[in-house]
What does this fold into?
Amino acid sequence: MRDHSSTSEIGRESLPDVAALRTDTPGCEQVVHFNNAGCGLLAAPVLAAMVDHLNLEARIGGYEASAAREEEVRGFYTEIAALINCEPGNVAFAGSATHAFATALSAIPFRSGDVILTTRNDFISNQIAFLSLRKRFGVEIVHAPDAPEGGVDVAAMAALMRAHRPRLVTATHIPTNSGLVQPVAEIGRHCRELDLLYMVDACQSVGQYPVDVAEIGCDLLTATCRKFLRGPRGSGFLYVSDRVLRAGYEPLFIDMHGARWVEPGRYRPVETAARFEEWEFPYATVLGCAAAARYALRVGVDAIADRSPALAARLRTGLDAVPGVRTLDRGPRLGAIVTFSAEGWEPRPFKAAMDARRVNSALSFREFAQFDFGDKDVDWCLRLSPHYYNTEEEVDRVVAAVADLVQGRPGGTGGTDGPR
Ligand SMILES: Cc1ncc(COP(=O)(O)O)c(C=O)c1O
It folds into this structure.
């Protein structure tokens, strides 16, 4: 059995009272929610902010409600800026991390032969977007190799930067398909040294880890609010550096919010990251995101980063001790995502059996991670992603549930509704 780290009394001393945080989270009474990498459970203040705004819209009108809450809406930019260490004017709201990523990509004037340098663990939709750019513009996609212990080999990636002078360097901080944490700040140091455009997908890390855009040295960074940040669905953001704004990057389909139509034949992009937004906003969602960011800051990002990965480490250690379970997370640094395969089970019946035990989880398939799952020689895995409001007892219950299913113990559904 591998020891993933010390897991006794996990980070509790540095967090506000876990019991109080659970009281704040109505979903904790219903389920063991180990799908924070899919969508975190909403905290009560986040839900209240959204419901309150929807009620206001119903009472006085949608445009009038957003005008009445102008200051609170500005709170979205100040809270996200505080969370990732930038100015509010560097933050753009987006409907999803993918939308933020695609909007940012659309601002880069790719030409045939330009190189996009990325890793073998970048998010599926980003990889598809690069392939689409290759199909349309003839860009070249270069994947940096992994180090033997897992995660990208930063020295090899830096050598590729020098050899190719990529038009874009991009990396996913924490992939969707494994617990790996990529060394995005180390990659960033090379990008800054070589003055290369650098975009980071921080979709799984915002709310789970400290994400400091100055330390990472990125030009662009994308995230959702619904995962470890525990904001609402249908939300995300894009960070745009001053460097990129000053250089005049703008999305291909800039609208009347991102630009002023100054004369019939000319528009002028606005100065801030609002250049990357659209005119229409889901204001209740934006206010929910502001509340979620405020909540995370109040809980404390360092304390969260201490506890969530430690709960995951306890889970990995427990699963490693179960015969027939193979944990798949590799890398020098692992986060709060735990992936494993279960001998004798097909994916959907296995997840359904976990659902039946009120344990929320998610499936990942080879299609989500062609390189990573190819290297690991697996076609699917179950993903469990605890967060700081989960408990050690829940971790142990989930390990017991998996053991029960995989070993087909009495009381388990192992022999009836799942295995091949
Ligand atoms: C690493 C990573 N990047 C991007 C995304 C896409 O986020 P969204 O669904 O908000 O577009 C995900 C979603 O799972 C993700 O895990």
About this structure: The domain at 12-42+300-407 is CATH 3.90.1150.10 (Aspartate Aminotransferase, domain 1).
